[in-house]
Amino acid sequence: MVESIQELRLVEFGLGGETFATDVTEVTDILFVPQMTPVPGTPGEVMGLFNLRGVVTALLDCSGLFNLRRQPRSRTTRILVLEPVAGAGFALWADYVADIATVDAAMLAPPPEGTPGVEMLRGVYNRGTGPTVVLDAAALVEAPLFQQYR
C-alpha cells in the first residue's frame, strides 16, 4: 500500500522581521498597497479600509499580534487579499512576498509554547533557511478583535 503525502502550498511573506506563510487557497490577490481610508477608533492592527472590486476590505497589520515591530512601507511592501469571510474583505500587510512554497505537511511542527497569537497559527516549519510561521488566516479574521469588521 502506498502512503499518501499531504503537501501544503503556501505563500511565504515577511512580517516584522520574521517569515510567515499562509495557505495559497486563502489568498485571492497579491497587490501593491492601495490608497485606503483610516477609520478612527479602530485597533492599531486595522490600518484602514479600501475598496477592492466593490468589496470594502480591511487592511490588517498583524505584527503587533505576534509582538513584532511594524516595518515601514517600502518598495517591496505588498498586501495579501484573503478570501472574503461572511461577505467582508480582509487583507494582510506583508513587508515582502518571498515565495510560493510546497511543504510536506509532516514538516509542520506545533508553534512553540507561549508564542503570542498561537490561536491564529497552524504551526512552524524550517526548509533550511530559518523558521517559517504558518498563519491560519481563517482563525485570524475570526478573532474577537476583528469580529466587528465582518
Choose one word for the global shape: globular
Structural class: mainly beta
CATH superfamily: CheA-289, Domain 4
The spatial strand order of the largest sheet comes to: 8-1-2-10-9
Number of folding domains?
1
Gyration radius (Cα, Å) is 15 Å
What is the average of the pLDDT values?
A: 88
How would you characterize the largest beta sheet?
5 strands, mixed
- Report helical residue fraction: under 10%
Describe this structure in words.
It is a single chain. The protein is mostly beta strands. The chain has a single domain (7-149), classed as OB fold (Dihydrolipoamide Acetyltransferase, E2P) (Beta Barrel), CATH 2.40.50. It has one helix and ten strands. The longest helix has 6 residues, at 137-142. The radius of gyration is 15 Å and the shape is globular.
Task: Outline the fold blueprint.
Layout: E1 7-15, E2 18-23, E3 27-31, E4 46-52, E5 55-60, E6 78-82, E7 89-94, E8 96-104, E9 121-126, E10 131-135, H1 137-142
Parallel strand pairs: 2-10, 5-7
Antiparallel strand pairs: 1-2, 1-8, 3-6, 4-5, 6-7, 9-10
Main attributes of the structure:
150 residues; mainly beta; OB fold (Dihydrolipoamide Acetyltransferase, E2P); five-stranded mixed sheet; 10 strands
Provide a brief overview of the structure.
The protein has 150 residues and is mainly β. The chain has one helix spanning 137-142, and strands spanning 7-15, 18-23, 27-31, 46-52, 55-60, 78-82, 89-94, 96-104, 121-126, 131-135. β4 and β5 (55-60) form a beta hairpin.
